[in-house]
Specification:
Blueprint lengths: L6 E4 L8 H11 L3 E4 L6 H18 L2 E5 L12 E4 L6 H8 L4 E6 L2 H10 L3 E4 L16 H14 L6 E4 L7 H5 L5 E4 L1 H4 L4 H15 L3
Parallel strand pairs: 1-2, 1-8, 2-3, 3-4, 4-5, 5-6, 6-7, 7-8
Length: 214
């Protein structure tokens, strides 16, 4: 099984910090895993970002995952891709990128999750947990009960894949989320819009690690 970090930081298009600046701050705060999520730029601009970000991640020993844009595989130092299309064919995606690239997927239901696990995904971002403005969508919010039900069902069906909670998560949600048996947590807005970026990152990181039950 590939290394999957329990606390994942996701960049986002925001007015006060570029993606490059977000990654620099996250790495300085101790980030082990960064998901570069930019859906607003041309390939040329994406690669300019990614090449700079990859150098920063390399300097800090941080894993770099890119949201979608799987056609950029091999064009920059990218360790993996996170695919947001819940209907994506992970069997084909795995054939495309080979066995060594990390592939994550977004899911909202246990059916999505199990299919992706069977097709070769390495981890799943399951959500949204709560209301999120970072990634607007119309999917059902899962809440604590939703994660409890899905993680319980996965155990009964012996489906073993790291599942991370994502979507509108605040620092005070983390302990209860981790107690559901979830593998980890992914966060963007609660760090990007915090008064102190580094403190917010480190607070999340600490509570995720201390609350983990698996």
């Amino acid at each position: 099984m590939k290394y999957i970090e329990k606390f994942q930081y996701i960049t986002h298009d925001i007015p006060h910090l570029s993606h490059v600046e977000q990654v620099q701050l996250a790495c300085e705060a101790g980030a082990k895993w960064i998901q570069y999520r930019c859906l607003s730029k041309t390939d040329e601009a994406l690669l300019a970002d990614i090449n700079t970000i990859a150098e920063t991640c390399d300097d800090w020993g941080t894993t770099l995952i890119v949201t979608d844009h799987i056609h950029l595989n091999g064009k920059a130092d990218i360790q993996g891709f996170h695919i947001e299309d819940m209907d994506a064919d992970f069997t084909k995606l795995r054939e495309l990128v080979g066995p060594d690239i990390t592939l994550g997927g977004s899911a909202n239901t246990i059916e999505n999750l199990i299919r992706m696990a069977k097709e070769g995904a390495d981890y799943i971002g399951l959500g949204p947990f709560a209301l999120t403005e970072t990634k607007p969508n119309n999917y059902d919010r899962l809440g604590i009960t939703g994660y409890q039900n899905i993680i319980g069902a996965l155990k009964k069906q012996a489906v073993n894949i790291p599942v991370l909670a994502v979507g509108g998560i605040k620092i005070y949600d983390v302990e209860a989320l981790m107690q559901t048996g979830i593998y980890g947590v992914a966060v963007s807005g609660a760090i990007n819009f915090a008064d102190d970026f580094e403190e917010a990152y480190q607070d999340f990181y600490t509570i995720v690690k201390e609350s983990a039950v698996n």
